[in-house]
Amino acid sequence: MKVYLPKQFLELAGKPLLVYSVSAFAQCDFIDQVVVAVNEDRLDFTRQIIAQHVTRSSKISFVVGGRRRQDSVKKGLDALDDTVDVVLVHDGARPLVSTDLIERCYHEILRHGAAIAAIPVKDTLKKGDDVHRVSGTIDRAALWQAQTPQGAKKELLDKAYHQNGDGEVTDESTLLEKAGVPVHLVVGEELNFKVTTKEDLILAESIITGRTCSIRIGHGFDAHCFALDRRLVLGGVEVEHDRGLAGHSDADVVCHALCDAILGAIGAGDIGSHFPDNDPEYKGISSLILLDRVIGLCASRGMKLTNADITIVCQAPKLAVHIETMRKRLAYHCEVGPELINIKATTTEKMGYIGREEGISCHAVVLVGNS
Question: Phi and psi of 62, rounded to 5°?
Answer without folding.
Answer: -135, 145
